[in-house]
Structure prediction request, 710 residues.
Amino acid sequence: MTSREKHDLRCGLAFCSPWLIGLGVFMIYPVVASLFYSFCDYSVLQSPVWIGLENYQRMAGDAVFWQSLKNTLFYAALSLPLGMMVSLLLAMLLNTQVRGMTVFRVIFYLPSIIPIVASSMLWLWIFNGQYGVLNWALRPILGIFGQAPPTWLADPLWAKPALVLMSLWGVGNSMVIYLAGLQDVPKELYESAEIDGASWWGRLWYITLPMLSPVIYFNLIMGIIGTLQVFTQVFVMTGGPGGDPARSTLFYALYLFSTAFYDLRMGYASAMAWVLFVLIVALTILATKLTEKRVHYSG
Amino acid sequence: MKPRSAMARFPIYALLLAGSAVFLFPLVWMTCTSLKPVEQTMTLPLTWLPRAFYAIVDGRRMEVTRDYQIEQPSVMVVPREGPTAGKRMLLPATAFDRQKSLARTQIFENGLPSEKSIAAELVKEVAPGWWHVTEFSATKVRQHELSWDVVPESALEARIRPRWENYPNALATMGGRSLEEVEGSVEHRGTGVSEDTVVSFRTFLRNTLVVCVLGVIGSVFSNALIAYGFTRVRWRGRDALFAVTLATMMVPFPVLMVPLYGVFKTLGWIGTLKPLWLPAFFGSAFNIFLMRQFFRTIPEELSEAARIDGCSEWGIFWRIILPLSRPVLAVVALFHFLWAWNDFMGPLLYLTRKHTFTLALALQNYQSQHGGVQWHLLMAASVVVILPIIVLFFFTQKTFIKGIATSGIKG
Prediction:
């Protein structure tokens, strides 16, 4: 190593030193430790005892675990595609050139910066079975068919759809990412398509979607990671870690949290966390493989 | 897309306006609710604006609380005998015998209820749809007997009046005091209450600001430093370490949760605000990435020229790169502030006592203790937690939206 190289190495490491500590203490150590704990019987009160694969084996027979996984996948399967569609449609609407667009952009984006705890309060009130504004609007409509509106968060059947509905309100982030992608699509493509007499559908299918495919892929991956870890709104809106009513909103992260910090079964919780990690990676790879041929990178 | 004709623009505006209405509605509804008195939050059919009602009760025109609507034909009578003699009662019309002036009613004698017919004088016949009203009291605790009456809708005069007092009441009760104490009608229970059950809203706000401001300082400074090391200095192992850095973004928080708790416990940070801001001083993968993307666009020649002039690496970072990087520093600062303000899981995990709670945790705590009834106060507290974020967003929305767009596109 020349003295110049040595100097640069020292200098580079000096600049990166906060990260070397941060990466080690807040990332690498926890990752390694949690992998170790996942093979242990461990509560914070006592030191971990190695039990091999027992946590993972127990998980296979844990009905509550499967319930939480099913709940989470059900929520993700509804919330993710709907959210992606709504945010893409909004982005396309916001990409039209009409006056006052900045105001509309701000309005559509606004809900996604609102603290989740606060928006949970707000939707708790909207979903209120008796005095909620949603049921007030639905009651006369459903009344025509002789039906009463559901009690939403108090109804095991409707609690998850209610959370999905709420999630659509906060799609602003992916909407803005779509919007930025739409603005990068060369205008000439649309102009020549119009000359060729392409319909609105044709332009959407053959120009917008292919040109937007990297962004769609990005939002898909972020969506998978995000929806599988949903926690705060469920914890707040269903009143703690129980996943009420009738465990219908016991999502994966919620069960993991209560296992770790209420039951103090930290080994089992760590094993669950690793299963979640593997699941996320597997779904990401699956999504990548499935979309590979359709994602089109220009330039 | 190219400018369109007025005809083509019309449906676009219609969609934009309809969408805006849907997206803004929850916030509007929250604000409306936050300004209502409690009984107006739970009426069917719903009312939109907070109102004050006036009616003539006992011959005096006064502000009244509209309590409930009469559903069946009723009568208002004054018994001439029994323990309730001289006091007005509201009974179903079927419980009153007009010919004999006898009211059949339940009377408590010696603590036991018994059904009796007592002589009573008819004051007023009440049609279904009339409203039961009580004299309005500023405090919810009724220290004196309130007047009440039953009046037809037409005799009720309504005026729009927001209840701004909900806001101070919400902030005061958020810390654990009861509404009765706040309104001054009940003395604070001095004994038997540990200091931790009553915390002022200002404490929550201060905690949140500590976490946000220190976190922002740490995050901006450390990530700039680290990104500089990853971008502007060449050293062996740099790219490998950067690849590891990017890979850590894939790790979901639940994987780190348990050992991190252990780390903070060992450090003695559990129950303090430290776990919520101190780690920001050690960088985060996403922000390093964001800053690195920006630093790469600054021409290398600037650094070279400075080096030739004898400027140290620190000098280049501090005097050349940082001043040029204001846009990306602003994005990182904003993101961190927002994230810290909104964070719920962190405070839930690490904060144990009420006087260390941040606003997000305090709001959830407030809801779990007072939820289900006092929607007006809960909505007011939520508005208070949301408002600073909205104000911040309005002043910085360009930086903001640009920041999110770049993170998605260049990622």
In short: The two ends of chain A are 38 Å apart (CA to CA). The beta strands of chain A are 40-41, 49-50.
